[in-house]
Amino acid sequence: xxxxxxxxxxxxxxxxxxxxxxxxxxxxxxxxxxxxxxxxxxxxxxxxxxxxxxxxxxxxxxxxxxxxxxxxxxxxxxxxxxxxxxxxxxxxxxxxxxxxxxxxxxxxxxxxxxxxxxxxxxxxxxxxxxxxxxxxxxxxxxxxxxxxxxxxxxxxxxxxxxxxxxxxxxxxxxxxxxxxxxxxxxxxxxxxxxxxxxxxxxxxxxxxxxxxxxxxxxxxxxxxxxxxxxxxxxxxxxxxxxxxxxxxxxxxxxxxxxxxxxxxxxxxxxxxxxxxxxxxxxxxxxxxxxxxxxxxxxxxxxxxxxxxxxxxxxx
Length: 315
Hints:
This protein is α/β, with parallel strands linked by helices. The chain has helices spanning 7-15, 28-32, 36-39, 60-74, 88-91, 103-117, 138-147, 170-179, 193-202, 213-216, 220-230, 239-256, 262-276, 283-290, 296-314, and strands at residues 21-22, 26-27, 51-56, 78-83, 123-130, 153-159, 184-187, 207-209.
C-alpha cells in the first residue's frame, strides 16, 4: 500500500469506519539519516489512533534504532515490521518478503526491534505465507516471530511469487492463527462485509485486515461494519458521494503540500484518481482524462461533466 495509505487517505478511511491503521512502510535507514522525505511517511493525526508506523530493513540493531527515533518523534500506538512486501526494489535490499527465505535474519530483525523498543509500545509484524509455492513456511515464521517478541502478526495469504495474483490461501492463515498464542490478523481478498464475516467465522483469526479493496472503495469499512452489526448489505454508494470524496481528497492533498505545488500533487494522485473512478459511468474515457490532470479545476470540471452525464441518463 505504499503511495496509498498516506495521512490523508487514512483520515478518510478512519471517518468511514476503519478501526486500526498502519502508515506506508518506511526505510529504517532513511529514518536514521533523518531524511525529511522518509520522515513524512510517519505522519499521522491523533484522530487516526490507534495507528502503527511500519518499518522495513534487514539489520535488527539499525531497525531498533529507527523504531526508537519514531517513538521519540510521534509515539505511535505500535511499531510494525514489514516482512511481506513483494516489490523487487525492496526485496533486492534484503527487505520485505525476502526475509521469509532467511529465518535467522528475520528473527534477528524482529528481536532487535522488540528489544530496542522494550515496553514503550507493542511491536507487530506483517508477513506473507512464504516465498513461493514450494516454500510455504508461514507457521514456522509465525512461531519465530512470536518467540522474537512480536505481539501480533498480520498474514497476507499469498506467497511473494504470487504478488497480488491468484487467491489468498486462508487455510494457511487459519493454520498460523492456531499455531501461535498471539493475535493473528488475516489479510487477502476481503472486499465486503460478507467476506469479512466468513473469514472471522471459519478461521481462528483475531481480526481481519482490508488493503487493496479500500483503494477504489474506502466505503468498504462502513459497509463491512454495517453488515456485521445488522446482516444487511448497504446500497451501493452513488456517484455523487463518490465524487465528493474524490474532490475532498484532492483538496486536502493540495492543502497539505508544504510547497503548495498543485501540479505536482495532482500528477502524483493520478493513479489514485483512476482507482476511485472504477465503475463510474464512462469510466474508460474518464480514466484517460484523469491520467492527464494537473490542477484541481480540471478534476472539478471532470466531476461536473460526469455528474451531468448521470443526470441526463436518469431523465
